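Milestone M4 deliverable, item 7.
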Amino acid sequence: MRSLELIYKAIDEINAQNPDAPPVSKSPDTLLLDAKGGVDSLTLVNLVVAIEQVVFDETGKSIALADESIFTSAENPFQSVGSLASYLDNLTAAA
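Output delivered:
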């Protein structure tokens, strides 16, 4: 899954930028925004920006991960790294 590789690259960047913060794990099961746990809001925002930049750098496609469609979606695409990768697959296919 190409999207997962792009997300992992963005996670590496976020972890390098914030060495004092708890690292974000590179696993599809890593919780991001979930009632059971996840990352703090600043880390999530930084991750979203990093993913958008990595996608642009690697593919030349400009995407917006946080748009109105996530609020009407039946499932939260930001629940985990795996759900975000599936959402990113759909976005990059449409872009």
